[in-house]
Amino acid sequence: MFRLLSWNVRGLNDSRKRDVIKSFLREWRYDLICLQETKLEAVSLFVIRSLWGNFSAGFDFLKAEGASGGIIVMWDKNIFNLVSSSQGVFSLTCFFQMVDGGFTWAFSGVYGP
Hints:
- By secondary structure, the chain is α+β, with helices and mostly antiparallel strands.
- It has a single domain, classed as Deoxyribonuclease I, Chain A (4-Layer Sandwich), CATH 3.60.10.10.
- Helix content is 19%, strand content 40%.
- It has helices at residues 15-28, 45-52, and strands at 4-8, 32-36, 57-62, 71-76, 80-87, 91-98, 104-110.
- The chain starts with a strand and ends with a strand.
- The relative contact order is 0.19.
């Protein structure tokens, strides 16, 4: 079993908000995280590590359009292998395979105005 979190964060440009999220994620130790309404046009490994602190993190993102939207999906590569991903206008779908057992499944993060 793994731990999953989906959270509407309403913007990640504020460093105080990132600190709150980082503290929460480290305390609860999630394996797959979806952050919606990030309002970020670009996401780097630096941003992912500053939010999560997991050095075996994989991620994909859907960039924000203007001042709204944006999705980040982060996962622990020790638990999940990304098979592929697909971006929609307001969604990001990731197809994963479990490292142990090989079970393949999909996760979708959705955000709409």
